[in-house]
Structures are given as structure tokens and as C-alpha cells.
Amino acid sequence: MARKSSEKGRYHHGDLRDALVAAADEILLEAGVEAFSLREAARRASVSPAAPAHHFGSVAGLLTEVAIRGFEELTRFLQEGEKQGGADPYQRLRGQGMGYVRFALAHPGRFNLMFRKDRLEADNPKLRAAGGAAYAELERVMRDNLGPKTSPESVALAAQGAWALVHGFAHLALDGKFGAAKGGAGAAVDEVLPKILALYLPKALNDAVTIDVKPGA
Q1: Which string of DSSP letters, residue by residue, matches 133-188?
Q2: Which of 66, 69, 118, 214 is a good FRET partner for 131, with 20 to 30 A between their CA atoms?
Q3: Is the pLDDT of residue 44 over 90?
Q4: pLDDT-based confidence at 46, cuts 50/70/90?
Q5: pLDDT at residue 142 is higher than 90
Q6: How many CA atoms lie within 13 A of 48 on its CB side?
Q7: 41 and 71, same structural domain?
Q8: 78 with 21, same domain?
């Protein structure tokens, strides 16, 4: 009882949730999702072992909250990258690609968790909404690039291809594949990624995707 009372004295409801999320972030960054446990999160947040389950229900519940916040932060990185592109639709799309990889490098623990459906509450409405909002940013700018006459199916395919490109680049950067380059992963984002995007996301992309794609093809 004394432990519970002290927890109530030190934390408001939202503060305790934030403290547990922060503890989860630390574990994910240091040891990865496979080493995650509610007990360790509680220890780092200096609360009782029962506190995480009380607020999040389960391991998946706490990790889902971390993933939700990750997608929300990813959306902000995409929006910031788009702003840097100015009025040109292609530059805005390229800026989003840069923003995606910068998010991964800034928050590697969250990034590696966010797409692990086996560790999350995959049907959680807030998680689905947060992930959908991030993807909608990419699809919207891709639509601006391809023009109003491009079919929704073609826009979706192009957006998925762009997503696959930057997602793969992000994982390679996190795995240290660009470590030999001067400046490491951060320099690779600034120097290598723009050149790759120029190859795979040219303005001529319009010609490649204007053929309508039938659903299910």
C-alpha cells in the first residue's frame, strides 16, 4: 500500500504513463524488443511491478502505446520534410523520403518496433489511425506528383514503392551499412539518399504509372 501511495504522490495519471513509455523507449533502444519486459519498464520508471499492467494491460499494450507515439512522430518528420521541399511536388516528395529516414535514425528503438505486428495490438484503433495518418502523408504528395488523371490504384502502387525504398534505406543505415562512408549514416542521408531518390523518384515517374492497375492485379 505504501508503494502505491507513493506512486500516486509522485505521478499524475498521464505522468506515470509517460514515465513508463520513456522507460520502454530506453529498453527498446538498449536491448531491442525481444528483451522487453513490463517488470524492467517498471523498475526503470521506479514504480511497482504491477503499474504497467494496470495502465496498459499487457506487454503488447505498452508497446502499442510506444508505437502509436512513434507513428505520430513519424508524421511530423514527414510533414517537416515536405515543407523543406517548397512548392515543387517532387521536392516535397523527396523531402518526405529524407524525413522518413531521419526519423528512423533519431528513434531507432521505436522504428524497429512500429512494424512488429507480432508484438503489438495490431487491431488497436489508435494504432491503425496513427499508422494510416503517416501513410496518407506519403500518398497525398505522391498523388500531387502524378497528377489528377492518375488512377488511385497507380498512386497507391507508386506510394508503396517509395515507402519500400526509404524503409529499406533506413534499415540499411541502422545496420551500419553506410558506416564506412565519411560521416556514417547521418551523412548517407544527406548525400547518398538524395541521389538514390533522384534515380527512383524522377519526374518521369508519371510515365511509368499512368497505366491503370486493376485491383487485385
Answers
A1: HHHHHHHHHHHHHH-TTS-HHHHHHHHHHHHHHHHHHHHHHHTTTTTTSTTHHHHH
A2: 214
A3: yes
A4: very high
A5: yes
A6: 14
A7: no
A8: no
Instruction: Provide CB contacts within 8 A for 166, sequence distance 6+.
Output: 97, 100, 101, 193
Distance of CA 9 to the CA centre of its chain: 34
- Contacts by 35-40 with C-beta closer than 8 Å and gap 24+? 36/63, 36/119, 38/62
Asked whether residue 210 is domain-assigned, the answer is no
Question: The domain that contains 137 carries what CATH number?
Answer: 1.10.357.10
Are residues 169 and 89 located together in one domain of the fold? yes
If one compares 114 and 199, the residue with the highest pLDDT of the two is: 114
Averaged over 99-115, what is the pLDDT?
96
Average pLDDT score over the chain: 85
> Which residue type occupies 71?
F
Both 75 and 165 in one domain: the answer is yes
Distance CA 21, CA 110 (A): 11
Full domain range(s) for residue 93? 63-205
98 shares a domain with 52: no
pTM of the prediction?
Answer: 0.84
Instruction: Specify whether 95 is located in the same domain as 185.
Output: yes
The amino acid that residue 11 corresponds to is Y
